[in-house]
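fyi for ur records
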Amino acid sequence: MIDTIDFGAGIGGAAVTLGALLRWEGQFGYALSESRANLDALRDGFVFDPPAGARGRVLELLNADTAYREDPAWLLDLLAIAAEHSRHQLALGVRFFTVLSLPQGSVLEGVRFESRAVPFPFRSSSRTGDPFDR
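which gave:
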């Protein structure tokens, strides 16, 4: 199954389409819109389960350059949320991919949208200092 979101008219129109795909109003009681496209809520509501019998799902993003020019942070956070969802689905044995259809020479080529780091070192409360010595 392929779902398409077109950013050609900007983030506002795409947010409405995304809200319909995510069944946003049923989840949260209000319509997803540009002014109500909070990324923390979007992460919570980002559920793209494949239909029964399907082995996966693809989210195709068209004209993402337009969204990037309008609000780079929002688009890059959306990509990070989609990548996170993909990892979770793959861990469950389900395929979920996001595809960016970009023109040659796109402003998005080479743009980093996610990085990972160890948040803090693990410190053992074990008296021996070895967290696996129990």
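The chain has a mean pLDDT of 85. thats all i got for now
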